[in-house]
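Consider one such protein record:
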Amino acid sequence: MICFAFSACSSNSETDDSETESESTNVAVETEEAKIKEEDAINFIESSYTEEELGLDDVEEDYSFMVASSGVTIEDENYIKVVAGAMTKNDTTDDDGNDTFSMQTYGEYYISFDGDTVLMKNMDTDEYSELENRYADYSAKSETVADVTETTTAE
């Protein structure tokens, strides 16, 4: 299941060099300038990291990845927000007797608009830590391979 229609925004203040603490805001950030967005952001998180790296290895429930329809700002940089979560049926109904649902969030991940930084939110402390950016690593490796190939064929 891939979702694009949820919205959440946050900003934060830095607590040290590798982790930052978050505060929620209601400011939506347009995502047109993001290099990685929508389904690509979900695919990037799913395919670049293991469940253990994403802190999801102990989650027993079925979950899916969803992406926010608007960006968020963290430390003056804009990010695409990807969430690992599941919709659960509540025991209550709405005024019309329809079932109600809640979203259980198991992990939050943020990809900077420029694609250079990937953050993971600690769900217990609301602090962010930087993940290895495998997209940048793959780009660098492919450039190195291309350089070696050109050098080898030119000789």
Q: What stands out?
A: The chain has a mean pLDDT of 78. The longest helix spans residues 134-154. The beta strands are 3-6, 10-14, 19-24, 64-68, 72-74, 77-93, 99-112, 118-121, 127-131.
